[in-house]
Amino acid sequence: MAEKRVFTLSQVAQHKSRKDSWFVINGRVLNVTSFLEEHPGGEEVLLELAGKDASKAFQDIGHSKAAQSMLLKYQVGILEGHTVQDQDADKYASLKEAKKEGMSAFIMKDSPTHKYAALIEFAVPLLVAGSFFAYRYATAVASHM
Ligand code: HEM
């Protein structure tokens, strides 16, 4: 399993270019090369720390939970002397599962709640338009009397 590969800090330090950028964050070794351009905080800040332990910088920014789970996506191993909790990886996997399930639940067509909602969405504008024309008709008839 990729998560189990152990690297030393000097091995990580060899991957510090734009084309090959590794980081250590909280004992995890990450290959973030493909994410450099997408990083909302810009690639420059990352490149300055490439090949290094960026745990403190990562922490100091106050990255969101989403950013923290992204770390797992880019993990290629762990730093020598560190143990990282495997349940984090499980959590990430179950997060992905939950997302998938959530999505399929969302597109489920025969959910009674969704049918009801669709009916209201259809009926309400029809009712409003109907009332408008009924009113127009009634006032037109009244003015011809
Ligand atoms: C290497 C793994 C990293 C990942 C996966 C990552 C991911 C992200 C993500 C998803 C955001 C958007 C905001 C959020 O969700 O918190 C963000 C923002 C940011 N990150 Fe990172 N980041 C990493 C490392 C770093 C490092 C080492 C620094 C420190 C220099 C840094 C500096 C910033 C800054 C300055 C922002 C912008 C914050 C803002 O505009 O409010 N990031 N990062």
Which short descriptors sum up this protein?
145 residues, alpha+beta, Flavocytochrome B2, Chain A, domain 1, 2 domains, five-stranded mixed sheet, 6 helices, 5 strands, rod-shaped, binds protoporphyrin IX containing FE
Strand order of the largest sheet: 1-5-4-3-2
Helix content: 55-70%
Q: State mean pLDDT (0 to 100 scale).
A: 82
Please give the count of helices: 6
Question: Oligomer, anyone?
Answer: single chain
Largest sheet: 5 strands, mixed
CATH topology name of the largest domain, in short, is Flavocytochrome B2, Chain A, domain 1
List unreliable stretches of 5+ residues. 102-111
Q: From the helix content, strand content and strand pairing, which structural class follows?
A: alpha+beta
Q: Which H/E pattern describes the elements?
A: EHEEEHHHEHH
CA(first)-CA(last) distance: 87 Å
Which compounds are bound in this model?
protoporphyrin IX containing FE
Instruction: Report the count of strand segments.
Output: 5
CATH class of the largest domain: Alpha Beta
The coarse silhouette is rod-shaped
What is the CA-atom radius of gyration, in angstroms? Answer: 28 Å
What's the CATH superfamily of the largest domain, by name?
Answer: Cytochrome b5-like heme/steroid binding domain
Question: In what range is the share of β-strand residues?
Answer: 5-15%
CATH architecture of the largest domain: Roll
What count of structural domains? 2
